[in-house]
C-alpha cells in the first residue's frame, strides 16, 4: 500500500513495537523459548513506518531482517526486553506488544554446561515480569495494545487481558487453529478495544492485519 505524503495517518507518532520470542538461558548451550517467528510484529513495524510513524522495534531473536529506517533494539531475555521497553516507554505515543514473552525462566542459570546423568533432569522455573501489565500500571497518555494467544475461551480470556492489563486494545489470536499464527505469513484475529469495538479479521496476510490494526488505532487517536 502507498500513502500520499500529505495524508500519512501516523505522521508525528512514535510507535514502539515488541516482536518475536524471548530466550531464557539455562546453561551456555541451552535456552528455553517458544514458537514465535516475529513475523506479526515485524509486519506491524513495516506498515507503521509506511503510515508515517517513527518506529522503534524491540525484538527478541528472530531470523527476519528488520525493515530499514526503523530503530531496532535486539534483546534476548524477558528481563532485557523489560529494560529496553521501559527505557523508551514514556516518550512513545503507541505501544504494540506482539512479542511472545516467556512467562517463566530457569530459576538458576548454570555457568558450566549441564552434564547428563542417568536420572531425570528437573529444572526449576520462576516467573518473569509481566511487561505489558507493568506498562498498563504506569501508563501516562500512551495508546497501549496487547496481544493474546489463546487455545480456548478465546474471547473471554482475551477480554480479561484487555481489562486486567489496562489496555486500549487487544489483538486476540486463536492458536488452536494450526493454519495461521506463529510461523505463518497469515493470521486471523479479533481486535477488541476498550472503547467497545470488536473487529473480526478473517484469515489474511499479516501485513494486512497490521494495516487494519494501525488504521483502527489512528482512528481512535483522532477521536480523542
Ligand atoms: N506479556 C508481557 N510480559 C510477559 C508475558 C506476556 O508483556 N511476561 C504480554 C505479551 O507480549 C502479550 C500479552 O502480554 O502482549 C499477553 O500474552 P499472553 O501470553 O497471551 O498472556 P499472559 O498474560 O502471559 O497469560 P497466559 O500466558 O497465562 O495466558
Ligand atoms: Ca504468556
UniProtKB/TrEMBL annotation:
Recall the GO molecular function terms of this protein's record: phosphopantothenate--cysteine ligase activity; phosphopantothenoylcysteine decarboxylase activity
State the residue spans of region: Phosphopantothenate--cysteine ligase: 15-224
For this UniProt record, give its keywords in alphabetical order, as a comma-separated list. Answer: Decarboxylase, Flavoprotein, FMN, Ligase, Lyase, Magnesium, Metal-binding, Multifunctional enzyme
Residues forming the DNA/pantothenate metabolism flavoprotein C-terminal domain are: 10-219
Tagged with keyword Magnesium: yes
Entry cofactors? Mg(2+); FMN
Q: Describe the reaction catalysed, as an equation.
A: N-[(R)-4-phosphopantothenoyl]-L-cysteine + H(+) = (R)-4'-phosphopantetheine + CO2; (R)-4'-phosphopantothenate + L-cysteine + CTP = N-[(R)-4-phosphopantothenoyl]-L-cysteine + CMP + diphosphate + H(+)
Q: Known EC number(s)? A: 4.1.1.36, 6.3.2.5
The pathway to which it is assigned is:
Cofactor biosynthesis; coenzyme A biosynthesis; CoA from (R)-pantothenate: step 3/5; Cofactor biosynthesis; coenzyme A biosynthesis; CoA from (R)-pantothenate: step 2/5
Q: Is Glycoprotein one of the keywords UniProt gives this record?
A: no
**Entry's cofactor comment:** Binds 1 FMN per subunit.
In this chain, CTP is annotated as bound at: 103, 113, 147, 161, 165
Q: Which family does it belong to?
A: In the C-terminal section; belongs to the PPC synthetase family.
**What does it do?**
Catalyzes two steps in the biosynthesis of coenzyme A. In the first step cysteine is conjugated to 4'-phosphopantothenate to form 4-phosphopantothenoylcysteine, in the latter compound is decarboxylated to form 4'-phosphopantotheine.
Protein name, per record: Coenzyme A biosynthesis bifunctional protein CoaBC
State the organism named in the record.
Gracilibacillus marinus
What broad taxonomic lineage does this protein's source fall under? Bacteria, Bacillati, Bacillota, Bacilli, Bacillales
Q: Which residues of the full protein are shown?
A: 177 to 400 of 400
